[in-house]
Amino acid sequence: MGVIPAGISKDIIVRGNRIKTDNICRIDGISNVFAIGDVAAMITEQTPKGHPGVAQVAIQQGVHVAKTIIHLINGEPTEPFKYNDKGSLATIGRNKAVADLGKFKFQGFFAWLIWMFVHLVSLLGFRNKIIVFINWVGSYFTYNGGTRLIIRRFIKEDVPQNTTMPKSDG
């Protein structure tokens, strides 16, 4: 089991090490603490396994919780969270992607173009969109995908030198 935050009962940790929440994203049994995204599991009849652990769920839950907190502060009634599934996009490789947009499903180059368009539109600021687009075009034509390495500083450990060499049987 993963690390459970202090004050959270192990009884409300459900499948996938997710924290069980009520229908307004509030942690079960705690009145002023909320959980959203892939750490939360809102178990309902419609979602017996909780919502999918994708960014769109977290974004929509974040907006919902902000409104919910304002309603609670003002003593107003709250509304249950309803996830609006806008579809799924995934790149598989160069010129290859899949797009599942409800009734419309695409694959291949066209789905890859949709993926690029959606991601460019979601960026904030016109300048950011242009910079990312130029970088993508440059990478596309130069076949330079960029270096995707996780690099950490190497610390050399002092290893005691063995003064006697083992004899080989050869």
Would you kindly provide a brief summary of this structure?
With 170 residues, the protein is α+β, with helices and mostly antiparallel strands. The chain contains 3 helices and 6 strands; from the N terminus they run E-E-E-H-E-E-E-H-H.
Please give a structural write-up.
There is one protein chain. The protein has 2 domains: 10-73, no CATH class; 88-142, no CATH class. The protein has a 3-stranded mixed beta sheet, with no helix packed on it. Strands 4-5-6 form a 3-stranded antiparallel beta sheet, covered by helices on one side. The chain contains 3 helices and 6 strands. Helices cover 29% and strands 15% of the residues. A hairpin with a 2-residue loop joins strand 5 and strand 6. It has helices at 55-73, 109-122, 126-142, and strands spanning 13-14, 18-21, 40-42, 88-93, 96-101, 104-107. The protein is extended. The chain is an alpha+beta fold.
